[in-house]
Amino acid sequence: MTLRLRVQETEQIHAHVSRAYPEEGCGVLLGWDRGDAREVARAVPIQNQHEDSKGNRYLIAPEQFLAAEREARDAGLDVVGFFHSHPDHPARPSAFDLEHAWPFYSYMIVCVEHGRATDMRAWRLAEDRSGFEPETLEVLSDGTPGQGGDRGA
């Protein structure tokens, strides 16, 4: 499986999670599921709603998720995944991430070191929920056309 996004969304995600540092930043990925690849058309930054431990936990509240889902539907898109940061830790899923992951979705994790995004990786929950499998992450130049459908410029 491949997760594709444009430079514009990458920069938006990096800016959001860098501003959230030293807390975890988070958001929702909107786009299309093409079977063998997902294309991100829009990254929706979300304010971390976790009540404590924001340095190593994030929470997207139900009303925030529903708003992102509504935005996706209105734009002819789907929710294809989520992103969050790991402040001063590798861009690998934690045990907490595994406990709270949902099947189907892509999970992008960004390592933010000393307030600067340094690494970004994508993951998908295994069907048996035993762990995460890495996804290939492709960052497309802003001029690269999507594989069908309006890219929502």
Account of the 3D structure:
The structure is a single chain. Residues 147-153 have low confidence and may be disordered. This protein has helices at residues 7-20, 62-74, 95-100; strands at 2-6, 26-33, 37-46, 78-87, 106-113, 116-125, 132-140. By secondary structure, it is α/β, with parallel strands linked by helices. A hairpin with a 6-residue loop joins β6 and β7 (132-140). It has one domain (2-140): Cytidine Deaminase, domain 2. Strands 1-3-2-4-5-6-7 form a seven-stranded mixed beta barrel. It has three helices and seven strands.
Order of helices and strands: EHEEHEHEEE
Q: Write out the strand line-up for the largest beta sheet, numbering strands in chain order.
A: 1-3-2-4-5-6-7
Structural class: alpha/beta
CATH superfamily: Cytidine Deaminase, domain 2
Low-confidence stretches: 147-153
Biggest beta-sheet profile: 7 strands, mixed, barrel
The level-1 CATH class:
Alpha Beta
- CATH architecture assignment: 3-Layer(aba) Sandwich
Q: How many individual domains?
A: 1
What distance separates the N and C termini?
Answer: 25 Å
The strand count comes to 7
What general form does the structure show? globular
- Average pLDDT confidence is 93
Briefly note the CATH topology name. Cytidine Deaminase, domain 2
Summarize the amount of helix as a percent range: 10-25%
Specify the number of helices: 3
Radius of gyration: 14 Å
